[in-house]
Amino acid sequence: MFMMPCIAPADLIGHEEVEERSSKLIPVSLHRYPETQSFHSSESSTSQVSIITLSGLSSPISTLLEELLIMIFDDMITSESSSCQNRRADWWLSSPRNLASVSSVWRTIAFACPRLWRFVHITPAQSLHALKEQLLLSSPLPIHLTAHQWSFRSPIPASGPFSIVALTAQLQSILSPSDKEGTVLAPASQRVESITINATEATTFLNFVLQSWTGRGSKFPALRHVAMNGNVCASWSRACFFDGRNAPGLERLELSNVVISHDAHRLPWGSGLNLTTLVWSAPAHKHGSLIVSVSCFHHVVSSFPNLTTLELHEHVVALEFATLENLEESGVTPLRHVHDLRIRGRVFPNSRAAYILFYLLPSLRNLAIRGRACSGPLELRTVMLALQGLISLPQMLGWPIVLPNVENIELECVDVSGVEDVFEGARVAEAVAGNYGEYGRRDFRIQMHMVIDEVLMDMTDEDE
Question: How far apart are CA 172 and CA 216, in angstroms?
Answer without folding.
Answer: 11
